[in-house]
Amino acid sequence: MPILFRTHDSLFHEMMIKRYTGFISPRSSPKFEFEVELVTPSAEMESEEDAHVEMQDGLWHLRRGDFRASWDPRAGRGHIRQSANPYSTDSVLRIVHTLILATEGGFLLHAASAVRDDRAFLFSGVSGAGKTTISRLAPPDVILLTDEVSYVRREATGYHACGTPFAGELARVGTNCSAPIATLFLLEKGAENKIEAISAAEAARGLLRNMLFFAEDTEMVEMIFRSACEFVDRVPVQRLTFVPDAQVWDLIQ
Amino acid sequence: MSEKYIARSSQIAARMLGGEMMVMSAVDSTFFTLNEVATAIWQAADGRTPLTEIVARNVCDEFDVDLETARRDAQQFVDELSQHGILMVSDHPLDVSSGPAEAA
Asked: Which stretches of B5-98 are assigned E, i.e. beta strand?
């Protein structure tokens, strides 16, 4: 999904190009665009305020301690007011993508994802569940899409995972490619490597727990719930318990 | 004790998946999985049928449980879901013209 960013600050421009290496294509036709207004860091822009996302008069308003942003989904235009901190831009992008994907049956998920033999595998869990660990243990034939936030799209042929530039502790952006999702694993650390079946309800619960979602909007919550149920209906969801050794990848086929 | 009437909120999304009813509040994103008995009560919560009648007809007649136990469990279930705005409870019949969103 090509996005155009406009900034008048050359240093910030360079910083963004470096941060999103592998995901930049000057020839793409943007689906929407953002004007980034940089401001001097102030007490107002450095507060610990959590993200708030709400729709007012057809505009999405995004607010967190370190940024203020608005986005018009119909016009495909938005505005971000932030300091020259790429993490703020990153957060706005994540939020906007959750809003876009929700209307299309897709979602962002706290999950590592990787492609093996042209099939994508997702490894989901809360912080500390092992997303970065399992990414680090991946053998050379595995293409890493992300170790932090997985991008799930619903397409006519099924669900696809796409690479993202959203890096976790591995501090490495994913590969810019996509593949049909073979399995979603809910991660747990344990004494042995094993895969277990789980009920549909448990799968939906695990999926919903790890979905990124910010909007305080009843319609969007219903969309997210519907997306989770449809995903669980169509894609195998299993529990993967693992010890931190590379042999766990013998189970991922 | 006065009669109670219960109705499903329109501010929820619900779906039967793998034989279990899943309900999510669109207000606070609370997620519930209902067991068979709770599902029976949930599905009968039309705002017009008294809770006692639902318990007698949809729980005691369908499941092997005595009336007193079923009433107590039903009250606990109704209290919990109403606290999250998932069920509406009233002393008189409720008008439920717009039902909850049922995922396809």
From this structure: 5-8, 12-17, 20-25, 31-34, 46-50, 87-90
- Contact flag A221-B13 (C-beta cutoff 8 Å): yes
What residue spans define the domains of chain B? 5-90
Q: Is the pLDDT of residue B99 over 70?
A: no
Residue of A nearest to B34 (CA): A201
pTM for this structure?
Answer: 0.85
Q: Which helix (H) or strand (E) holds A227?
A: helix A218-234
Q: Nearest by CB to A222, which of B20, B26, B33?
A: B26
CATH fold of the domain at B5-90: Outer Surface Protein A; domain 3 (3.90.930)
Q: Which residues of A touch B31 (CB under 8 A)?
A: 204-205, 208
Any idea which of A137-146, A241-250, B1-10 has the lowest mean pLDDT?
B1-10
Cβ neighbours of residue A41 under 8 Å, at least 6 residues apart? A83
CA distance A107 to A116: 21
